[in-house]
Amino acid sequence: MKDFIEFNTSNLEIGLLARNSRKGPEQTLVRNFVDHITNSFKNKSTKLAVFYEPQLDTGFPDIVFVEYLPRIFEKWNDVRSSILPIDIKVLNYLHLVNGSDSSSMENKLGIDSDNLLKSLERLLDSKLIHRKSKQWKPFSLRNNFAIKEIVAIEAKISNLKSAFEQAQINKWYASESYILLPTVMPNKDTINTSQKLGVGIYTSNLNGISKVSHSMRGMLPSCYASWLFNEWTGRYLHL
Question: Which of 33, 82, 166, 187 is 20 to 30 Å from the Cα of 100, by its Cα?
Answer without folding.
Answer: 82
